[in-house]
Specification:
The chain is an alpha+beta fold and 224 residues long. The chain has one domain (2-205): Glutaredoxin, CATH 3.40.30. It is built from 9 helices and 4 strands; from the N terminus they run E-H-E-H-H-H-H-H-H-E-E-H-H. The protein has a 4-stranded mixed β-sheet, with helices on both faces. The termini are far apart.
Length: 224
């Protein structure tokens, strides 16, 4: 049985694509996936980076690329009415569904609901009526499962999001989606084949290449 931590923020179109492609990438394996919401902006701030949508020319390319990737992989994706946006409300709604047997996690149903809220339909992710409908849907899901619902603005939900951020930074994460398996971090949609080979026990991962990159000298370091 393989265990994977999938760190994500629904603001990321790449995280949405990786989420949709993950089942196919892991087909045939016995896997437990733990979905962990994290504030992408906090990772960027910790590393002194801008997000791809915050760099004008890169912003245009990012949207072109994810639209192409979506049709290439057969995944539905429509750009939201505005992007980037503050995803805190969505992250907290997701964590409001956390349960005692999976603390701090969102199950696949909830994770999918968060991604579809942003990347299906082209609406405004923060429009109050849409957020209220999403909350009602998630609350119904918890009632059906006979599980408690935590207040999205409560201290426990806020603290859990901070814990996820601290955990992500401690693991060296710098972006989303990031998949962590067997102590290794795999970043991005294009890392899914690499993740699969690692879980399959490919010989490359038993060699020195994975760790040897840490010893590569820095030739020059620019000042910010």
């Amino acid at each position: 049985m393989h265990e994977i931590d999938f760190f994500y923020d629904p603001i990321s179109p790449y995280a949405h694509l990786a989420f949709e492609c993950l089942p196919q990438a892991l087909a045939g394996l016995s896997v437990v996936v733990r979905y962990k919401p994290v504030l992408f902006a906090a990772l960027l701030k910790a590393h002194g980076q801008l997000g791809p949508a915050e760099i004008p020319s890169k912003r245009d390319w990012t949207y072109r690329q994810v639209l192409w990737m979506a049709q290439h992989h057969g995944v539905r994706l429509e750009l939201p009415a505005a992007h980037p946006f503050n995803p805190l409300a969505l992250l907290r709604l997701g964590l409001a569904t956390s349960t005692a047997d999976a603390p701090g996690q969102t199950n696949r149903y909830v994770t999918e609901a968060l991604f579809h809220h942003v990347w299906h339909g082209g609406g405004d992710p923060l429009e109050p009526a849409r957020l209220a409908a999403l909350q009602e849907r998630l609350q119904d899901h918890m009632r059906e499962r006979q599980k408690p619902w935590f207040a999205p603005d409560g201290d426990e939900v806020k603290a859990q999001l901070r814990r996820h951020t601290d955990e992500a930074l401690a693991l060296g994460l710098f972006g989303v989606p990031s998949m962590v398996a067997d102590g290794r971090v795999f970043w991005g949609l294009d890392a899914l084949p690499m993740l699969r080979e690692s879980l399959d026990g490919a010989a490359w991962f038993a060699g020195a290449a994975w760790d040897s990159v840490k010893t590569l000298p820095v030739g020059v370091q620019r000042k910010a």
